[in-house]
Target: alpha-L-fucosidase
Amino acid sequence: MKWDVFNICLFLLSLCNAVRYEPNWKSIDSRPLPSWYDQGKIGIFIHWGVFSVPSFSTEWFWWQWKGSPPVPGVEAFMKDNYKPGFTYADFAPEFTAEFYNPNEWAELFNASGAQYVVLTTKHHEGFCNWHTNYSWNWNSMSTGPNRDLVGDLADAIRKYTDMRFGVYHSLFEWFNPLYLQDQANNYQTQKFVESKTLPELYELVNTYKPDLIWSDGDWMVSSDYWNATQFLAWLYNDSPVKDYIIVNDRWGNDSRCKHGGFLDCSDSFDPGTLQKRKWENCMHLDKYSWGYRRNMKIDDVLSMVDLLSEMMETISCGGNILINIGPTKSGEIIPVFQERLRSMGDWLKVNGEAIYGSVPWSHQNDTVTRGIWYTSKKGPEGRIVYASISSWPEKDQLFLGAPKPTASTKVTLLGYPQQFEFKPGPSGGITLSIPVISIFDMPCQWVWIFKMEGLKN
Model:
């Protein structure tokens, strides 16, 4: 055999393909994270289901109404607005999705600058947003929309964008009799897992070939009950998505923030410091709910400054940010959510080079001036460092304590053509001279990013 470059590549590829992951956490955790996830940084989360019909309180509406203890405000809402005997299942026919246009959704998400989308396929209420063989009459093909909501969006994302498509799936269901029976048996039986959870997961993977599985509903019991490592070993070894699939850490109360792919740890996880493993901040534009709320006020929605500041803090510390919206029961994304996503996309057109493909710097935030977060990237002549500021300097100077300038240092503002003058700080750091910039020349309205090349550090 002639060992030319081609044959060497084939040999190395065969070695990679020979890797088999065992159904235990040590082996599962050894799998390298496919690079597309860390490079992309920003995703869109979509919470949509039967809970979008009452669109009151949160996506936990059913549990807040019928769980233990019930939430008084939700009980009162049902008593005041619905006839006696009304059940949660009666909401399903009203989940109509008549204005659901997945092509428009795909265009909006693409315009936002996000690199991946994660759709709720099934929340804890158990309603499946796809044509499933494992949830008779409690799915979007059998009642309500009478269409495959998951498949329609997956097709649109892949046809009209270069974004990755992911699926959220809840392992458990609040009131499923099979789950409640396993729970009553102290999880010594697995009827729910064997007949519902795992078949759904295999079906989602084989049917839609997602790029990401965002698991949830794990906290009641360990990953052994869910047969999580067995499923993940199949996913990494033999599934049709084995080469590029990403998963999170919510596979049991023993795995969260410890095992799996990237770490979610908790909702809105934002540690503010660099983490040892890849992590994600899943957060919502509506401060009080993941699902759509009809009584949401404008002040309940994150401002662009808040959203972009949280994005920069997250990415500076090595995380991805997954930004949630909740569509209406009709399939509409309300204008304020559209405005936030399109504004984010306009901002990223100016500042995206500090985001996509970036890595954490030696400092995550500044050592002196508050509210400044750093990212970095390898440039043609050395390391490039980006510093984000959430408020424009009131004076004509800005001091950064972390950077160490040299004679060849160059400082610019992303989206602005002129270089900024600077001088070394008296005891380290760098002092930028901030000129008067016309509103017509200001590159963006919120959160500005300085680009520094040729630093000593």
